[in-house]
TrEMBL record:
InterPro entries: DHFR-like_dom_sf, RibDG_C, Riboflavin_Biosynth_HTPR. PANTHER family: BIFUNCTIONAL DEAMINASE-REDUCTASE DOMAIN PROTEIN, DIHYDROFOLATE REDUCTASE FAMILY PROTEIN (AFU_ORTHOLOGUE AFUA_8G06820). This is Dihydrofolate reductase. It holds the Pfam family RibD_C. One of its GO terms (molecular function) is 5-amino-6-(5-phosphoribosylamino)uracil reductase activity. It comes from Mesorhizobium australicum. Residues 3-167 form the Bacterial bifunctional deaminase-reductase C-terminal domain. One of its GO terms (biological process) is riboflavin biosynthetic process. The lineage of its organism: Bacteria, Pseudomonadati, Pseudomonadota, Alphaproteobacteria, Hyphomicrobiales.
């Protein structure tokens, strides 16, 4: 069974929009495109190398595909990531029938159904890069097996986020983590169990607590 593995650059407030450059994605009036470049260090490069060290196919949303397709074919093949990206199979979640010009690209029109099918086929793992819209679908359908987040010590205040209100609740296990010299926290997570809940409340709440709860129930 193939695994769906997502990796992303995120800010402290969970924004993943336009990490690579000012013109990558200005939608929603986003003005901080290229926020990764100003804090990049060698530790990030090493972590990215680990993400791409095993065989993979790419699983992309249409907008991320267009960003990649305009960039990576122009990067010389002596760059190892360019060589891998240009050679691998690309599955593109899109509602359009427009042709996909980047080599080895295949359109998928029902992302959840097609990803379920792809997971049952032979082949390398399916690596999601960027693709915030696609991620919403995959996380809502519990179709992501592993997540690597590279969290930069920045607050961006607005923008497309990795998790959304559509994400399914759940607890995750940390299977690897590291901190780079620039303070970028890199962690790999796998879904583990339902959200555990407990309470620090007193066994016998006082009058103030009872009144507080009633006020909340009344919409106060």
């Amino acid at each position: 069974m193939r695994q769906v593995i997502a990796s992303a650059f995120v800010s402290l407030d969970g924004v993943m929009q336009a990490p690579g450059g000012p013109d990558e994605d200005r939608s929603g009036g986003f003005e901080y495109g290229g926020w990764v470049a100003g804090t990049w260090d060698d530790g990030v490069g090493e972590a990215i190398g680990r993400v791409f060290e095993r065989p993979f196919d790419l699983l992309l949303g249409r907008k991320t595909y267009e960003i990649f397709a305009a960039h990576w074919p122009r990067v010389p093949d002596d760059d190892p990531i360019a060589r891998q990206f240009n050679a691998c199979r690309k599955y593109v979640a899109t509602s359009s029938d427009a042709p996909l010009a980047w080599a080895n690209s295949t359109a998928i029109h029902d992302a959840a159904t097609e990803v379920r099918r792809l997971r049952q086929t032979d082949g390398p793992d399916l690596l999601v890069q960027g693709s915030s819209g696609l991620l919403k679908t995959l996380l809502a359908e519990r179709l992501v097996d592993e997540i690597t987040l590279l969290t930069f010590p920045l607050v961006l205040g607005k923008g497309k986020t990795f998790f959304s209100d559509e994400s399914r609740p759940g607890a995750y296990s940390v299977v690897a983590s590291s901190l780079t010299p620039s303070g970028i926290f890199i962690a790999t997570y796998r879904p583990s169990r339902p959200v555990p809940t407990a309470s620090f409340a007193l066994d016998s709440p006082g009058e103030e607590e009872i009144a507080r709860r009633r006020n909340i129930e009344a919409g106060g």
